[in-house]
Structure prediction request, 506 residues.
Amino acid sequence: MSVKDHCGIFGIFNAPDAARHIYYGLHALQHRGQESSGIATSTTDPENGTPMMPVHRDFGLVLDVFDDPELFDRQLIGDAGIGHNRYSTTGSSDNRANIQPLVVHHRKGNLALAHNGNLSNARELRKSFSERGTLFQTTSDSELILHLTAQSRRQKHLNQVIDALMQVEGAFSLLLLTDEHMIAVRDPNGFRPLALGRLGDPDQPGGAAYCVASETCAFDMIGAEYVRDIEPGEILVIDREGCANGGTFKSYEIPTNFGVSQCIFEYVYFSRPDSKIFGEMVDKVRRRLGVELAREAPVPEVDDDAKTPIVIPVPDSANTATLGYANECVEQGYRCRFELGLIRNHYVGRTFIAPGQDRREMKVRCKFNTVEGLLQDRTVIVLDDSIVRGTTARHLIKMLRDSGASSVHFRVSCPPVISPCFYGMDFPDKEELLANQFESVEEIRDWLGVDSLAYLSVEGMKRAVYGANKNNTQGYCAACFTGNYPVPVNMDASKEENEEWAVQTV
Prediction:
């Protein structure tokens, strides 16, 4: 899999030891970003009582960045805060200034920001600011929101933030922290998921704590209850008065010109199966993806005296879809059973180097191994959630054949990926995508070295998603499968274009 996770955000308001809750929430969201992590909290200076926002950020995983318990006792104090796990989609991954949350201090007070997504009008905004002499501290598009806030002519801090949010376009699930509020924002298209949760009894003195997260699995980690999704285009202002009144918060709406287009790839690959996103459990949707794939491309039939074919997932993101696929094939009368023929090593470092060997192949071997006795002389149907560059799939297929499989058949629980994403995912360039390098599925099959290859159709994918999530009638973005972008984008935008600009102008 060559598509990278984007970012995970988590915030909580009105909770003693807020930073500890954020720490656990970010740990649950680690799959959404592994480059860096950070937490900012809102508190007051014990000496003079002025508002302050301590922040701790660094490269690495959550458990490594926050490995000092003293951070939570002496620095990250307060009952409100936001956190961020980063995988860079805009701005260099090795620029420390790009680590979020971003924190600024200006005339109206402190402001921290955590962003999941990409701003499609970032280039125009940055150019406009540069022409006015604005100095940038980062090369991330997220900083633009802070500048828009600081330069707003509105008088109240909250109104400045809202004014800024009305000027950005693209994909943005945001958490902003002021000295008095935590603000949750979801772009009008609703590209990225964002959910509201509650921790504690609403009737307790001061009310319950309220939290916001990219995925609901973060609520489960701290024992919070899912309340609802932040609606597409909603600006939800969480404050102490609302907490004391049972969660009655003010909400504002960002107008839209394009309609709702939630990222369908969240269901296919990104989100954890134990999360609820866009109003439905990911596990349920992925099982339906497998069911639809089984109806379109079931397991091949074998002779009666042959061993029972086995259906195996590429762990871990394909596990659930494979269960749906295998069960549906059995329902249709095909002889097969679900097995775990590939075992994943979860402890492979990101910087592993294989001296003297093909690094890409060695990386696959360090990440996966086969169960040889299970595969010997057997028809194997291997299911993956997607094929992007195809290099991992090709190496896995070779490993399965080397382990004695009599035939290998590949099934993919989504359509061919033909276009990059500009809404918060880090895809390879269009020409690097496997589906664009061949004229047909048959040619891809031959290059992969499998006996048969089948993708789920776009129509089948939509049937699965709408069939599983019947309560959500809003639209989905499938641009990576269709090339139809719901919001205009800069097709030539690059991840590090601002980094190059910064080097030239220093």
Observations:
- The radius of gyration is 24 Å.
